[in-house]
Amino acid sequence: MQSASDRHEYPAHWEADVVLRDGGTARIRPITVDDAEHLVSFYERVSDESKYYRFFAPYPRLSAKDVHRFTHHDFVDRVGLAATVGGEFIATVRYDRIGPDGMAASAPADEAEVAFLVQDAHQGRGVASALLEHIAAVARERDIRRFAAEVLPANTKMIKVFTDAGYTQKRSFEDGVVRLEFDLEPTERSLAVQRAREQRAEAHSVGRLLAPGSVAVVGVGRAPGGVGRSVLGNLRGAGFTGRLYAVNKAFPEDLKELDGVPAHRSLRDVAEPVDLVVVAVPAEYVPEAVAECGEHGVQGLVVLSAGYAESGPDGRERQRQLVRQARAYGMRIIGPNAFGVINTSPQVRLNASLAPEMPRAGRIGLFAQSGAIGIALLSRLHRRGGGVTGVTGVSTFVSSGNRADVSGNDVLQYWYDDPDTDVALMYLESIGNPRKFTRLARRTAAAKPLVVVQGSGSAPQGHAVRATRLPHATVSALLRQAGVIRVDTITELVDAGLLLARQPLPPGPRVAILGNSESLGLLTYDACLSEGLRPLPPSDLTTEASAEDFHAALARALADDTCDAVVVTAIPAIGERSPGDAELAQALRSAAAAAPAKPVLVVHVELGGLAAALSAATSTAPRPEGAAHARAAAENATAPQPAAVEAPEGAHLIPAYPAAERAVRALAEAVRYAQWRREAADPGKVPEYEDIDEKGAARLIGGLLARGQGLTLGTEETCELLGRYGISTRRALPAPTPDEAARAAGALGYPVALKATAPHLRHRADLGGVRLDLADEEQLRRAYAELTELFGKPQELRPVVQAMAPRGVDTVVRAVIDPAAGAVLSFGLAGAASQLLGDMAHRLVPVTDRDATSLVRSIRTAPLLFGWRGSTPVDTPALEELLLRVSRLVDDHPEVVAVTLEPVVVAPHGVSVLGASVRLAPPPARDDLGPRTLPTY
């Protein structure tokens, strides 16, 4: 039992699960007085050499005094952490606060000595690096700003742990000892090192699940049918290259083999190592199975069993216990309530899923949280004449079910540097950690396309997600900003994936259209305009066009410098020169192969076997003959899914679509993604402004927060804080009576505006609560009388007087810190119409100069800022600077949890902030800046 410390309660929030370099997991927790036996047992398993490196002398055993010292901590000046697997220590780290003389001290001393000890069997797994991240975070929490460590020169491994961490440090050598001192403030390099380690560890943990050397299925029934027996059959049918085992405690003692697979009553009876276990037993028997797996050294679990969080509160607690139990043994889990995993690599051929057929091997990675959606996607990607055919199939597939442990973030880490995956497709019913997903998605999208269907925003019952206050549309916009290709349906997911898997990215939006149907060409032209593309006039080859005509027309279009992509439209034609399906497919392939830098798409309408011909060039499948061939052609003619041309080795496949709108929509997504890739190569920079008073703002915020946990600032405080960041606001003076209004106007100077600031009238000029350009006191008093007559007493209206700003376009700037997604900057035009249409654009903070430029231009009503219909263009550079200053404010001071500037009048010269509100609160925790941890829900 863990007891309270000498001076502080046990810091349970320091407990964490981490993924180590080899993909296994460990638990990090504070060491307490109850850990004496654990510590002694751990020390006995450490080699004499490691003990020597730790204590600089032979130290065969710990004395009672040592044990007391290393287990009694006050969790402030003396802290010890242990990394555990299976409840046993595998490594320890501790710090002791010291003063300038190097002796034990208390606060305000801000330096501490740190020392590690790692069991020899676990050295090289990245345990010390993970412990350093966590002990550094603990030290910062306790106001320790610097670590010192003394290391023997021969202890190169430990020296490397410190030097590779990325902290600012200095090294000295004295009396045969290397002394390292380093600041604990995270640096750009330390964060980069931490995230690189995170990527390698999490990718490796998924790789162990997808490429095991051996698999056991626990819960294989003796009779055919059932989940366990089905999975075992699927593993055998896929030709899994490793060892297989069937496990069921109900097997007869004399049963040694089942379906040609070694059979065992318990995993303990398996003599060889087992890497992956598929658990297919009822939920009440899962803990026993997990314990056997942990004791056997299993690396990971795929839990197909249901009855967890999807079934209610009791199931949710059962799911938490499952994750805790598995991680205690260093195992990761896919599931529970999962559909399974697939790896089509010839070196693995793993089908540890409920899918009865192995998908074709290909270059598309597929992730689905829902088993039903996973089935649908696999079916579409597998069917000939539907989805991705031929060699353009699936590389890996993961269905995470309730994703209690392994999530889409982990799979993204794996796909990022997976050489077998060119395109990633994800169906996400929920996003557990939007901040991390956005970061990983941006990095992945810079290397390979990432296409996502995102759920409606309400998480399924089995999913535990962080609360977010952002609307679903805002989250979608932030994903697009990160380079994610956001689509709305499974059909669009497959369509986009098919194009991106085997076609080059288009260099621009200019689209050539050619085909043998004028009507279909015009339909394609209109679809291009609707998607924001720039189509060239369609080229009608007429219904008499031959294969040679198609080849020549496509070759000309691809050679045209004014064309970035080509859509070929084809309908059935009857005539002596009309090409057959195979002939037309070959003509298109050969023309496209001569210009491989531009994408080519085909829109086919009821072309019988064209879809099959387009994908059959080098297929290894038997070619149907006679009546079978006719039936296959008929099926392909009516199939609503796209097909793909399979070209010779090294050439691109040509995707074919049954509708112009689907082909053009996929092409438009590819165009937008290609544009993002080009822009991502130069993301811009966060400007520095000399007039920003960051320290003064920090003092002001600290003083204001001392009043309470959260508060909305008053007018004067808001103006002062914004002024520290170079944001000036126009004064608005209260006008509770006509005389007060006149005095306010006299102080401000005419002309003025009179505004009602009651909540139901604020920022609603369309309701008549604003009077502008009041040139003198007579007009002001008349306007005051009109407002009170229309809307009620002054106490209800809360009128204010404000000096007139130069005429321009009214806009809104907002920033909010969301607990799940982080700080978000939003921009749009002011007014009811924009609010009704939801015409707001969003960017994650910190915003760069390029982000600010694109933010202003991202809203649908942006033309109003640039001289629409002869109006005067406004000062968008000044607007962009305002956006950048607001971004700096919330990024520098996370206590600023909300900022609203409304309206912001953008004039031909300059901007005027007419209204502002700021809310302060203790900032939400930033887990992306802390040490690496696995999520706990």
Could you characterize the architecture of this molecule?
The chain is of the alpha/beta class and 937 residues long. It contains 28 helices and 40 strands. The strands form 6 sheets. The chain has an 8-stranded mixed beta sheet, sandwiched between helices. Helix 6 crosses helix 11, helix 8 runs parallel beside helix 9 and helix 12 runs parallel beside helix 13. The longest helix has 23 residues, at 188-210. The radius of gyration is 33 Å and the shape is globular.
What topology does this entry show?
Blueprint lengths: L15 E4 L5 E6 L5 H9 L3 H8 L8 H8 L6 E8 L2 E11 L12 E8 L8 H15 L4 E6 L4 H8 L5 E6 L2 E7 L4 H23 L3 E5 L8 H12 L4 E5 L9 E2 L2 E4 L11 E4 L6 H11 L3 E4 L9 H16 L3 E3 L5 E4 L6 E4 L7 E8 L2 H12 L11 E6 L8 H9 L6 E6 L5 H12 L4 E5 L17 H10 L3 E3 L2 H13 L7 E6 L2 H13 L3 E2 L3 E2 L6 H13 L5 E6 L10 H13 L6 E5 L5 H6 L10 H13 L4 E2 L10 E3 L2 H21 L13 H12 L5 E2 L2 H10 L7 E3 L3 H11 L3 E5 L13 E5 L2 H15 L2 H4 L1 E5 L5 E10 L3 E8 L2 H6 L2 E5 L4 H10 L17 H17 L3 E11 L4 E3 L2 E5 L17
Parallel strand pairs: 5-6, 9-10, 9-13, 10-12, 13-14, 14-15, 18-19, 18-20, 20-21, 21-22, 23-24, 23-25, 23-26, 26-27, 27-29
Antiparallel strand pairs: 1-2, 2-3, 3-4, 4-5, 6-8, 7-8, 11-12, 16-17, 16-19, 28-29, 30-40, 31-34, 32-33, 32-34, 35-36, 35-38, 36-37, 38-39, 38-40
Helix pairs in contact: 6-11, 8-9, 11-12, 12-13, 14-20, 15-20, 16-17, 23-24, 27-28
